[in-house]
Amino acid sequence: MKRKTILPLFIAITMSVFTWGQQNPLLYKIFDKNGKSIRWEKVLKKADEAEVVFFGEYHDDPVIHYLQLQLLHHLVESEEKLALGLEMFEWQDAELLNAYMNGKIDQKTFTSEAKSLWPNYRTDYSPMVELAKRKGVAVFASNVPRAWASAVFKGGFEALDSIYSELKQYLPPLPIPYESQLPGYRNMLKMAHGHGGENLPKAQALKDASMAWSVVQHLEKGFKILHLNGTYHTNNFEGIIWYLEKYRPKTRYFTIAMVRQADVRSLKRDFRGLADVIIAVPDDMIRTH
Hints:
Layout: H1 3-23, E1 29-32, H2 40-49, E2 52-57, H3 62-78, E3 82-90, H4 94-101, H5 107-113, H6 121-135, E4 138-143, H7 146-155, H8 183-191, H9 199-219, E5 224-230, H10 240-247, E6 253-261, E7 277-282
Parallel strand pairs: 2-5, 2-6, 3-4, 3-5, 6-7
Antiparallel strand pairs: 1-7
Helix pairs in contact: 3-6, 7-9, 8-9, 9-10
Domain Haem-binding uptake Tiki superfamily ChaN: 44-244
Protein name: Haem-binding uptake Tiki superfamily ChaN domain-containing protein
Organism: Thermaurantimonas aggregans
């Protein structure tokens, strides 16, 4: 090829790639904990090897919810005894959820009577619950009642002693272990600028411990588990993971975190190490609520 034709060809190719990038923006990109780009197939392989998969999310992100649904599709086909655990359901709805999953009540009754149903349940979580229902996958509420977390926020862990409810059967053994120096809890205090005092991270710890305990109870029944939770509950292998290691040491777990970036082509250094796998989503992605 003559030299004078190379430059126009290069410019044409470059413009073509740029135009393709504008027309086909990256919706997400997947990285390992060191920031190396990996394929979705590797995520599936790692999920297959674990006893429990924690898929961290921002609750309003449609891309992550779609990927959670795809992972659930995969696990449904590869696992004989699978359970889907949801931070989005609190224990006061556990029996109602079981009744719906077992066909004892219809969807309208379930959604109208559930007390902890989130505003974006229909768009973001119902597709996964309905897939689980069709495929006979167990679904369990893993989160402590919000009022209990509020009580701990106001009065510390001691507030749990004054709660009289049959739902206390779901709580982990009291007193709940607590490490105030975990970076995630310290950062929570820092971001709150002192508001809420030392009880603010304790309320978070109650949720972390309760979700970990809920997961452990289902692991002990022989279930493989996919658990959906806010990514901050498992980031840096703290939160739920810290309690899981307390309650069931040597559990084989796999963590997925999500982050938002202006450019998802490479992972920001600050996000490396958040989880076994980190999924970057554009920070201007449309949100569901």
